[in-house]
Fold this protein.
Amino acid sequence: MNPTSRRLLYLLPILLFAGLAAYFLLRLGEHRDPSEIPSPLIDRPAPDFALPGMTAAEPGLARADLARAGGEGKVTIVNFFASWCLPCRAEHPLLSQLAKHPGVALYGILYKDEPAAATEWLKELGDPYAAVGVDAQGRTGIDFGISGVPETFIIDRTGHIRFRQWGPLDQATIDGKLLPLLDELTK
Amino acid sequence: MIVELGHYALILAFAVAMLQSTIPVIGAQRNNARWMAVAKPGAITLFLLIAFAFASLMRAHILSDFSVRNVVENSHSLKPMLYKITGLWGNHEGSLLLWVLILAIYGAAVALFGNRLPTRLKARALGVQAMVALGFLAFMLFTSDPFERMFPAPPDGNDLNPLLQDPGLAFHPPMLYLGYVGFSMAFSFAIAALIEGKVDAAWARWVRPWTLAAWIALTAGIGLGSWWAYYELGWGGWWYWDPVENASFMPWLLGTALLHSAIVVEKRDALKAWCILLAILTFGLSLIGTFLVRSGVLTSVHAFALDPARGIFVLALLVLYVGGALALFAWRAPALKGGGLFQPVSREGALLLNNLLLATACATVFIGTLYPLFLDVTGGGTVSVGPPFYNATFLPVILPMLLLMGVGPLLAWKRADLAGALTRLWIAGVAALAIAALTWWLHQGGPILALVGMAAGSWVAVSVFVELGIRIGIRRNGMATSLRRLFQLPRSAIGMTVAHLGLAIAIFGITGAAAWKEEHVANLAAGQSLDLGAYEFRLDEAKRIDGVNYWAYRGRFTVSRDGETVATLYPERRLYWVQHMPTTEAAIHTNGLADLYAVLGEPDGKGGWTVRLYREPLVALIWGGVLVMVLGGLVSLSDRRYRVGAPAQRRAAIAAARAA
């Protein structure tokens, strides 16, 4: 090995380290929360699903309903909830407010819960949903990539997911992110 | 008052470190004996000051002095005394104090016991050690002060994370730090050698004991952590390739390579640049690990919750030490004169290959750990890297190394007869195939890797004995002569035998636990039974009990096989009141060959319990093997050579005495 390439070989460790250090500096500058996991479904079409209603009389919820609402010019909000979920109770009044927004159709998916318990829960708190689908096994939840309840998805008129809220909605997120997004999607 | 004295001691230590990192080093450059002589008292003073600071914080924890912020954030009056003591290092500031204490301990040890070290080497090494301490003392004093007071003092503290209130975990940090902070000494010696421009057999002889001590501690520390994860986390697993687990494993891999390279430098004056680079990188990885854990860049169960501002400080330290060292390496290492030449097939060649394989293994772990971060920044999305990746990349590198481990010790220096060595290992090959066949017969339909693992373990174990046999001449001499020679073997040789054997045992354990683990998760009510293989687990009852700083549900399982009771297990699900944190206390029964493991999960509110049952064959061998490796290292460390010193100096002393 000639002396020049030998010297270059000795330079390799410091060069690699310099790259690593630059990368670490970049990461530190980002101020990202490492536990924040973005949804891989953003800008993708909503997954296909067809769920039964809470009682035999109710029609349930399917992706076709989302498409139909989109066709009518509405932005759909799909909210995964359960009666055993305390944060769902906390976000409920905010959801009810959102449902009143013109150009919005709010749908609910009951996740791993008993329809009877949920009916009681909705009777107590009020039912803001245009329709509710029952995901007893959690398969649809898996398709949407949720890791718990509540999670809320905003789906535009073309059926693509535009926003995912992990955990309960709060007023700050609604004012800061949701409402501007809704304005943009209903333009 | 004592806390303020401790704080002052730390500031004084900072000042001493400033002096210690300049005066001896300049003295060595100018060959000024008096300036170089500052190194020994400097290192000892540094140690005494930091020890005092540590003791004063320890006193605050023991007395539950809630006017000290560190005690408030991590302790509670009801916490058991053992955890009041060990809670000192269960948080960022306290663990940093432990870090610098161990840096200082190694420095003082070299100062006290390194009397026959060449003066210039000693002065420079201790100077560099003090430079590292300086950086971390600055980090503590300016951003992470453990001595901060809190007024008004709250009536009680926030309690220590319940996961840390555990005997295994209490001692895991000090052991680990003795390990990867201990590699700082090898780092300091390497920098000293680069400044000197000379790496010789004497240097390698001096570096080995400190590197070996650090390696022993790191092996023990990783073993403790793994054992703790097994019995505490409640999933029957013992290694998760968690970023911080990897951060301790990577220095171990390179540290092992360093230990082996030092042999070549000592015996044959070759592989010098490798040795220096490994010494720099081993400690460098320790520093990178420190950065990853404390900067907030990674999520991990281990990560201290920190802000990026502190992260920048650690990154600066990292760039200063590792960047500085690697720059020095690029500049000075090419001038290191290579020594003995050797053929590719030789013991040196085998050790070089060993280095390459261990370094590659380390690189795969490094890539796996940082890959999610790299991908994130380049917009590739979020991925998690887990066992499938490491099985696909790490195992294919380690398996050839295990093969090599059997052959290497049988190869001669400079030029070896590979065919001859392999022929002598025929019995190891036969044993490996036999064990593989036995495994296949016992566990038909099991994973192929199990066969490979058992074969690899047998190969290493038997070849270790073959090598021992050849060394004591068991074929040529009679039993008496061979036994005599066995007891006359240098301890480093016995240490090698024992340590390699320990690894083989651990491999059996790893293979068994990974390949033949049985598990069953279900919902059980009191009185119901669940089958796991040949065993029946019956949940007799689950009742509520109260502990010192927690309350718990305790279940009682009766485990039977073929109708006969084998064990009674008492798993608990605890809730620590102050931190509102639940922990599982798994109940484990071991008969040495397999573990029966029961975990009590959530109650479903209707009298039923989620229970997790595991049977883990051979898992105890993992920690048994680690223990044997540690033992091998200790035996090697007790070798007379390290206490007597380099022979050249003694001969010179005798010659001088004769001349006088």
